[in-house]
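Journal club side-thread
Mid-discussion, someone asked how the predicted structure for our own chain would compare to the paper's figures. Pasting it here so we can look after the session.
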Amino acid sequence: MLEALHALAPAAPVFASMYDPDAMPPSYRAWDIHTTWINRLPGSTESHQRLLPAYPVAFSRLRVPGCELLLSSSSAFAKMVRPPTGAVHICYTHSPMRFAWDLDAYVERERLSPATRLVLRPFMDVLRRHDRATLRRVHRFVANSTVVRDRIRAFWGRDATVIHPPVDVDEMAPVPESEVEDYFLMVSRLVPYKRFDLAIAACNQLRLPLRIVGSGRDREALEATAGPTIQFLGRVDDEELRRLYARCRAAIFMSEDDFGIAQVEAQAAGRPVIALGAGGALDTVRDGETGILVREQTVESLGEALRRFETIRFSSEKSIAHAATFSRARFERDLTALVDETLTQVRSGERYWWN
């Protein structure tokens, strides 16, 4: 997302809470990047979660030079920045901060201790109030999916225009059906909320081959439950990932993602997707046409979806065509049109806030 935004305005400065050049693509070093005081704190880029109370302060105090348009990309705090006098602030929202607005689900999925939960609850009450108080700093919201648009309405009482994120669909490499192999695929960080445990249990029961790409703190525990049909591949490079996508029977996703770029990538590779019927998957997967939507986040529902998968003949061409609607070119066209429309309406005095 950041790279796509920067490509639209390559001369524009980029402001971030922190920046570690060694951890980012070398091309970023040619950008005009500015950071907050958080970047100077010891260990800030190694354990950013512990600095949670600092982010609202850092972004609220961030001083952006005079401009006509301020475009923020926010999953929590970037929307809190104060636009310069006379500037229009458009916020591309990946989601209102889920850890604050859905705290119970967050602490459950992260398996936080009772003591941590006790400390977090009053802090999140304060954070939600501050989150609402800074809404007037944003003139117009853009949501990355329909479900995020609905959260913006529910939590913030504001409208938002849905523009899906850019996906590099043209980089995928579909193969003829004769080259598809006999395995299902999961790709993600191995963390609790991605629910690899459900896919492993279902594939254990049905004795289906499952290949898992990714690394994370749950790997050891997941490997302990995996049967002989489950294979852990760890991290793979982009070329190998494209090969795995193109040759799998289907890609499986059992978490509720705000959008789900990987779900689109799998379809761009010509393969169907089996995904939890929630969150971004409701936008990215056409049930029975480009994949299967799983009814509930349970082993039983996934097993039912896998059995249903066997009864449907999916078309690679339909999956590829559907994925193309989430291309980077489409994103650039839609966002540019929204920016032009917004600035025109502000200049004419027709509108200044989108409520």
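Post-session note: The chain has 14 helices and twelve strands.
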